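Example with several molecule types.
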Amino acid sequence: MNIDPIVGIPPAAAGALSAQAGEAQGETFSKFGTWFGQQIAEVNGQLQRADANLQQLALGDANNLHQVMINLEEAKLSFQLLMQVRNRALEAYQEIMRMQV
Amino acid sequence: MDYSQAFEISASGMTVEKLRIDLTAVNIANMHTTAGADGTLFRPLRVVSRPGAQNFAGLFEDGSESSVYKLRGAQVFAVQEMTTAPRMVYEPGNPSADATGFVALPGVDHVSEMVNLIAALRAYEANVVAMNAAKNMAVKALEIGGNQ
Amino acid sequence: MIQEIDTATMGVLRLALDAASLRHRVIAHNIANANTEGFAPLRVNFEDQFDAVRSAIGQGQPIERGLLDGLRPTILQDAPLDGGATAKVALDMEVARLAQNTVHYQALLRGATKHLSILGIAVTEGKR
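Resulting structure tokens for the full complex:
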């Protein structure tokens, strides 16, 4: 899944935005991109761990049944949250792209 | 798996208690038997059980908390003959009577055997309750996250 | 087509579910023959074959699909405990094994359901 980082609006094109607010928003946008990339890696790790746990359960090596179930459920919820954040970000991007110049 | 360990532990307890009940039944059945053809009198039997561990020596070497997972419930250590004195009953007409008319019967204490029987039965039931509780816990753990 | 983006988890789960249902049939067979003379109880041996898979999981590597081919649960006769001629069926032990196997089967099914629902989230993009 390739997510383009949301490009900060250059202060020159901001118009009504003050220069300070424009710079602050430029920083925030790049931080969001970095943060989102980190979150994707973290959710991926969670999903892989839940997968390995499930395989251990199938082989009879699991130490803890409830821990396996909890990891699985947490991974699923994290993934759902990630999907929703991704959907909202995409919607926002598309809305911005739809703006008449 | 932790729940399979719980099943194994309860199963080992049930095995020990079942043997105890069997030996109590043997003792009670032989309460009035006289000496056999070889002259030996029946001696009451009892079970000696001890905590079972997969590797008893390893429990002390490995001091980490995973050592508690090596416990395996109970196991039968030995089946011993008790050295109680035989009961002497005065029955002069009995073919097994000795010169003074006394017959030697096994030293099986009826009352304590009944107490052992009841105690072993309750322990067996308690092990079954523990196993059912472990099974219910595992089934409940599967409900984490709801029916999705 | 879902196998293209899935790991080998479903394959391992499928094998384990097969073993669990075979185990159920074997235990029911033992219970039905509890009073048959000369009947030795049977067991299902499965988990021992998994050493290659186990080491792959332990090292954090994804499991190759070829590792799972050819793994089949085997049915063995029980060895007698006290060195007698044949082992006997202990009915309470068989019922206990049945309960444990049932819980294990349910756990595997729940795990498989959750795993597939996670894939479903990816496929439907989080929309119902």
